Amino acid sequence: MDFCRKQVKLDCEELLSRFQRTESVRFEVFSKIWREMNFSHIFYGTVKREKRAFGRLALDTACGFFLPPFSFQIRVGGLYLLYGLYQAQTASPSEQIRLALKDWDDVKKFEKDAVDAQHLDVVYVLRRLMFLKAFHFTAMPTLLAYKKKRKVERSALCEEFMERASRPQELINIELLEELSNVQEIYEKLKASVSPTTEGADSSLNLIRKDLVPQLRGAVVDFYKWQQRKEGQDEGEAEGEDSGEGTSSQQECYRRAERLASIKSKAYGQAAEAAKSRRHRQVEVDFTSSEAGPSNTQCYSRISKPSLKARTSESVHISGDVWKEATTTTLINRLTSLDSLPEEKPKTYKKFKW
User: What pTM does this model have?
Assistant: First the structure.
């Protein structure tokens, strides 16, 4: 059923995008879109074992939209989608909705937010699923198999369904600003009663700023305006993108590669490419080239070691001299005894190619 995963996700995203454009969280609105798309026909065509496998795939895909980091409206649509798919599946007994224990806290918080906002149809659908025992609480969100290596493709999340970051607006509200203003006023009165003079109060007990509340409010408003301006710029860039110029990341890679090439050419000069049979040897560098940089640049070449033949002959010569100095008399006696022996033909040795 992996070949159907992408198509099922696209269908779910299409349904939720239509529900998002309505700007509503009512189940009546969602059910109307469900009927217009004939979404219950998604299970038609599956037979025998495919019914259960496809039902599990559809429920797992819809469950992803019911959990964070999506917005509240999309999560409501995901809940309605789970309810519709659970009721419309053709497998018997019905396939349960797989829910990990770590996600249960998010579900309870979602239910509390719905109760506080008086979205009773959301609360009813959630508790109806719990009454039908539609949730299967598991340790992991996906099914695991023993000694089975499987590469799971992680699809990108739809950015249109993501909740916009609005923490500053939620934390700094009107009630908080009024409370801060009252606290600051009480602080000013206590400071005036403790300090006999105003100068002493300013010098020793000035623990907070006088314009704290206006500055805090101004910072939140500036952040909100910057957020709106950034969203507008992102949309404009997406619409006016030119395919012929290429992405900015590719251009940065090209510029970086050009800078590295120029740095290497200035540091090492222009080196001639050797033949394949001589590539293991040291490459001679032309430091007089015009591309090697200014003349005052210090260029250091690799220190080459003497060949094996030179090192061997040098070591043999040194050891022979020491041996001669130590045993001069013995050598003379041996040389005189060798004069009477017949001359032997010199041995021919195969010349070693270095």
Answer: 0.50
